[in-house]
Design a protein that fits this description.
Elements: H1 5-16, E1 25-30, E2 45-50, H2 56-63, E3 71-75, H3 86-96, E4 100-108, E5 132-134, E6 141-145, H4 146-152, H5 164-174, E7 178-188, H6 198-215, H7 221-235, H8 240-255, H9 266-274
Parallel strand pairs: 1-2, 4-7
Antiparallel strand pairs: 3-6, 5-7
Pathway: Cell wall biogenesis; cell wall polysaccharide biosynthesis
InterPro entries: Glyco_trans_2-like, Nucleotide-diphossugar_trans
Family: Belongs to the glycosyltransferase 2 family.
């Protein structure tokens, strides 16, 4: 949205400075024209102006048709790549392990602050450098084979923000691939204040319901929504304002249309269960 020009410039420099790969870069402005950026963006960067802020996942999707290549990489404007071989290393991993359909790197704060546990997308967090299968992803730095991204249908446009990384990972699994947390790859991102507001709580709940309605067989929808309802009630039992906003979003999730429904196959659910996390929590 053009509100972090220094961070944006750093992130773009880290992409253009990658060695061992050819990059094709587009900067998407969500309600902002990147062609007006100060300092100006490098001439080799294509810009896309979206007059209206369509939300994070929709903005990412709009940029995809403007780039070419066998792999596609998404980078938030406040993230960057400390290593100039990140993309070459990641693409090598995709080539050597064709079962991988999505890579999320380990995320570190450039000033050395301790990274939040939420940046490790698994229930048992463990060592941040330990790699594993995952069933969601931190969306700020994501590398995928272009063919797999196309097969998933892309990011969840209607979500605006919150939980689009879960849906994308689920749909990667449904293509027959796995989503992978690569502890040996590193992306930089500052630790930010996790303070929440009513809008966050509302979208968090609405998108949980939409996630189930869009992606799960009908019989599993109440199990997934029910388990997360119980978790949130326990988590925020002493925050009535948060729960009030959350349940407003919960109701909206049932009343409003979630967009395209693509229920995953039972074969996928079995694969995810064997890998450690059935899609019911």
């Amino acid at each position: 949205m053009g509100k972090r020009p220094d961070d944006l410039a750093r992130g773009i420099r880290s992409i253009l400075g990658q060695r061992g790969v050819v990059t094709d870069v587009v900067c998407v402005g969500n309600g902002w024209d990147p062609a007006t950026a100060q300092p100006p963006l490098p001439p080799e960067v294509t810009t896309l102006h979206l007059p209206e802020n369509l939300g994070i996942p929709a903005g990412r999707n709009r940029g995809v048709p403007l780039v070419s290549g066998e792999a596609i990489f998404f980078l938030d404007d406040d993230a960057f790549l400390p290593s100039d071989t990140f993309l070459a290393d990641g693409c090598r991993m995709l080539a050597e392990r064709p079962e991988i359909g999505l890579i999320q790197p380990r995320v570190v704060d450039p000033t050395g602050r301790v990274s939040p546990r939420r940046w490790i997308p698994r229930i048992r967090k463990g060592d941040p450098s330990h790699s594993s299968n995952v069933f969601s992803c931190w969306e700020g730095a994501v590398l995928m084979p272009r063919a797999v991204f196309d097969a998933t249908g892309g990011w969840a446009d209607p979500f605006f923000y919150a939980h689009e990384g879960i849906e994308l990972a689920w749909r990667v699994w449904d293509t027959g691939h796995v989503a992978w947390y690569a502890g040996e790859l590193e992306a930089g991102h500052p630790v930010i204040d996790p303070a929440r507001h009513a809008y966050y709580y509302r979208l968090n709940a609405r998108n949980r319901v939409w996630l189930a309605r869009r992606n799960l067989p009908a019989v599993l929808v109440p199990f997934y929504v029910g388990s997360w309802t119980a978790i949130q009630v326990l988590r925020w039992a002493r925050q009535p304002a948060a729960l009030k906003a959350w349940f407003a979003g919960w109701r909206a999730g049932w009343r409003e249309h979630p967009g395209e429904r693509r229920p995953m196959r039972w074969r996928t659910i079995w694969r995810m269960t064997l890998a450690g996390r059935p899609p019911v929590v």
